[in-house]
Amino acid sequence: MPRPTLFLIDGSSQMYRAYHAFRGRGLSNQEGHTTHAVYVFVTMLRKLMSDHHPEYIAASFDLAGRTFRDELVADYKANRVAMPDDLGEQIGWVHEACQALGVPIITAPGFEADDVIGTIARRASETGFDVAIVSIDKDFFQLVHNGIRVYDPREDGTWFDEAAVRDKFGVQPSRVVDVLALVGDTSDNVAGVPGVGKKGAIDLITAFGSLDALLDQAGDLSQRKYREALLAHREDALRSRELVTIRADVPIEVDLETLRYRGASRERCYELFSRLAFRTLVNDYAPTADTIEKDYAVVATAEELDALVAQLREAREFALHVIGDDPSAMRASIVGIAFSTAGRQARYLPLGHADLGGGDLLSPASAVQQMERGAALERLRPLFEDASVRKIGHDLKADVIMLRTHGIELRGLAFDSMLASYLLDATRPGHPLEGTSLEHLGYKALTEEDLCGRGPKAVSIATVTPQAALTFAGERADLARQLSQRLAPLLVADLLDQVFRDLEMPLLPVLADVERAGILIDGPALAAQSQHIERELGRYTERIYGLAGQEFNINSPKQLGEILFEKMQLLTLKKTGNTRSASTAVEVLEELALVHELPRLILEWRGLHKLKSTYIDALPQLVHPSTGRVHTCFNQAVAATGRLSSSDPNLQNIPIRTVLGREIRPAFSAAPGHVLISADYSQIELRVLAHMAGEEALIEAFRSGEDIH
After folding, report:
1. Where are the alpha helices (DSSP H) in 385-522?
2. Distance between CA atoms of 462 and 323, rounded to whole angstroms?
3. Rounded CA gap, 323 and 403, in Å?
4. CA nearest 420: which of 433, 410, 411?
5. How far apart are CA 595 and CA 679, in angstroms?
6. Angle between helices 11-21 and 91-100 (to 10 degrees)
């Protein structure tokens, strides 16, 4: 039967190592206290546990105050540099982190951490354990014996058994203290024997077998330097050996079974790492659906749905989320709808889960009863269209669009937590439910990837059983409701409530109308343009090949670089970041185009190629099969300036600077009997400034149509 392994961590040395590994990086918490030593220590500890999965584990730290070694030598460790103040204030957090991560701390007044580790290691070894001492301190080599090894965690980690100690240190483990006694340690005021360095000490101990034998025969040494030094400093050598010897008899009582690793405390880790502002670590320990009590259930029958509708109407306010099977609300079919009227409570109405058969994830949808979509939506219609019942959600616009596809008008839009998060911090790169919940609720929500998989193996949410989708769906509504309660007071405190109520929320259904309306495009006109640009690209290609003197892949930066910088010997202006090869980026080609025609033609070819692939050929592929129109998504919660952005496709970025680019715009057409209007505010910022400032001269200039500049 294999022996269990006990990992003993030299906490003090690991803490110093963590401090110096990250020094000067400026990591701090919300109160401005330095935290980098804690962060690196935790990272190293987590890596140790991840790499080795210890069955038993403990750590020891030096305590403040005198030890028995101070009684032996009055100035023991007097030469050591004082602990930096910003490390001293992190010690308590390091200890707290150990305990939160499930690593017990063992200390003993009057003894150093080394002695505590030595004592526990010896006892564990004698009672059937293998021991791994985690440290970068060579002094621990003296303990290596009978299943006790030293593990140096630096880089990929190195194990030291008896053979490895001999190879690394030059003597067997039992003689390490003799070498250390001769060499001494100036930082700890361990005197040693002057003039005997490490190599000399190893040679002497190897020749005589031990420090005692060496001292007894010192007078017979042929080397005068060693002979005189050893005779003069015999007591120093013996005292030094006593100082460097790790004690294995510290009077502590430890039940080794209490050192069995039982895992981290998610609650303590989350609280501590939140306090220290360790965002990446907070994410790992935040509460999840698996760690909280919740009331989520599937609504499977007409009777259950009627009871739910009555409950929602009685509440006069509820959160909802419509689950679709496509990222585009215009193209999505409704898979299900989640509802919530209280914290950690949700009901999920499955409506479009497919019956595919298979395993747990793809088991038959018929295993859970599912109402017919049309009938269920008709039961919900009066509730959805009742403006007196307040609706809450996260990205309600998508819900509005999907329900309108089924002829239902979602009224009573009261609070969109995505828009609220955006107003509170418009500089964030995005406001998904998962990130917003983690920041404001301290809760780690499931992602669609968690549910459906990633990459090529990902499945449609419609193929997941309703029961498997329950937690994901329930969180969409539950968390939106919780966020509304958390964010609404923040909007008031930041004087953003009026903007939210009077501008952002009323704009939401307007944008839904615009997106659903879409825009017609002239397919034949774009097809003709595509053919025209294809011919133009062909002409450019011939000219480029002619100037280059050979054919090559114009789209390949590597091949283009070889032509420009190796064959044609043009000046290399910039290197790429990863491969350090010559850059062929736009700004480089623009500079080279001033001195040679080929880079100019490459730029023009790239412009035509992008125009064709990104717009002329792509737009017809985006026409909705049912409406015959292109439907963009207008994003309210993206641009930090407050402006709308457009995506899938981006209709705000249609080229206009070139003749060919301008020819794309006429391909956007109006339906018969309608016209397209192009409108733009004239100097809107200055007009707003004039109005808000009440500046009469500026106002009069606008009224009289003067050139304001």
Report:
1. 396-405, 417-424, 433-441, 448-452, 466-493, 497-499, 505-517
2. 9
3. 11
4. 433
5. 41
6. 110
- pLDDT value of residue 592: 85
Question: What are residue 427's phi and psi, to 5 degrees?
Answer: -85, -10
Nearest C-alpha neighbor of 372 from the set 305, 292, 274, 435: 305
Contact in structure between 564 and 592 (CB atoms under 8 Å): yes
Contact yes or no for 629/519 (Cβ under 8 A): yes
DSSP 148-159: EEEEE-STT-EE
Please answer whether residues 529 and 613 qualify as being in contact, where contact means their C-beta atoms are separated by less than 8 angstroms.
no
Residue 580: the pLDDT is 55
The 10s digit of each residue's pLDDT in 660-698 is 778 888 889 898 999 988 888 888 889 999 999 999 999
pLDDT confidence of residue 358: 42
**Can you give the pLDDT at residue 577?**
54
Whole-number pLDDT of residue 69: 87
Reading the block at residue 286, the tokens are 């935040």
Bridge partners (DSSP) of residue 298 are 348
Beta bridge partners of 28: 34
Rounded to a whole number of angstroms, the CA Rg of the chain reads 36
- In terms of Cα–Cα distance, which of 242, 49, 18, 8 is closest to 144? 8
pLDDT at res. 426: 94
In angstroms, the CA 194 to CA 686 distance is: 82
Give the per-residue pLDDT at 570: 82
Strands 5-10 and 130-134: parallel
What local confidence, expressed as pLDDT, does residue 177 receive?
95
> What is the per-residue pLDDT for 576?
63
Residues with pLDDT less than 70, the chain: 23-25, 78-79, 355-368, 573-580
In DSSP terms, 79 is beta-bridged to none
Residue 505 CA to residue 499 CA, distance in Å, equals 9
Note the pLDDT of residue 25. Answer: 60
What would the pLDDT profile of 423-462 be if each residue is shown by its tens digit? 999 999 899 999 999 999 999 999 999 999 999 999 999 9
Amino acid in position 548: A
Q: Which two tokens stand for residue 73?
A: 């030598």
Rounded to 5, what percent of the chain is helix, strand, coil? 50, 10, 40
The answer to whether the CB of 151 falls within 8 A of the CB of 9 is: no
The pLDDT value given to residue 575: 66
Q: How far is CA 63 from CA 79, 105, 107, 108, in A?
A: 18, 12, 7, 8
Q: Give the Cβ contact number of residue 709 at 10 Å.
A: 5
How far is Cα 70 from Cα 43, in angstroms, rounded to an integer? 34
For residues 111 and 185, what is the distance between their CA atoms, to the nearest angstrom?
19
For residues 212 and 234, what is the distance between their CA atoms, to the nearest angstrom?
10
Q: What is the DSSP string of 309-348?
A: HHHHHHHSEEEEEEEESSSSTTTPPEEEEEEESSTTEEEE
Question: 682: which residues sit within 8 A by CB, 6+ positions away?
Answer: none
Q: Render 209-242 in DSSP notation, one character per residue.
A: SSHHHHHHTGGG-S-HHHHHHHHHTHHHHHHHHH
pTM of the model: 0.79
